């Protein structure tokens, strides 16, 4: 079952949106074709501990987001410095 992690994540997202995950909702929101037995099995395992899965995802997400944002800011600062230098070069006679 290659789609297990994807399906559990999809169940978590639906739950966070205030929707009760079901086979029909999962099929509606899925971005790929999924077999119904796969969906049912993933849905059953998500129902066993939905809160635990959501908490684990929330604790790991901020650190990933922070490091990603820091890297983007650093890249943008470098780009701004390069563009400023080019502008100064254009304004010099």
Helix content: over 70%
Strand count: 0
Rounded Rg: 22 Å
Number of helices, where a helix is a run of at least 4 consecutive DSSP H or I residues? 4
Order of helices and strands: HHHH
Beta content comes to under 5%
Low-confidence regions: none
Average of pLDDT: 82
The best one-word shape is rod-shaped
Question: What class would the helix/strand composition place it in?
Answer: mainly alpha
Summarize the structure.
With 93 residues, this protein is mainly alpha-helical. The protein is 81% helix and 0% strand.
Structure description:
The protein has 93 residues and is an all-alpha fold. It is built from four helices and no strands. It has helices spanning 4-16, 23-29, 36-48, 50-91. The protein is rod-shaped. It starts with a helix and ends with a helix.
Write the layout of secondary structure elements.
Elements (H helix, E strand, L loop, with lengths): L3 H13 L6 H7 L6 H13 L1 H42 L2
Helix pairs in contact: 1-3
Name the features.
93 residues; 81% helix
């Amino acid at each position: 079952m290659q789609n297990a992690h994807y399906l559990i994540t999809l169940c978590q997202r639906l739950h966070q949106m205030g929707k009760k995950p079901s086979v029909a909702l999962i099929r509606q929101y899925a971005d790929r074709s999924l077999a119904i037995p796969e969906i049912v099995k993933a849905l059953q395992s998500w129902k066993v501990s939905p809160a635990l899965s959501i908490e684990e995802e929330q604790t790991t997400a901020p650190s990933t987001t922070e490091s990603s944002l820091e890297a983007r800011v650093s890249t943008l600062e470098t780009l701004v410095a390069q563009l400023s230098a080019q502008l100064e070069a254009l304004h010099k006679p």
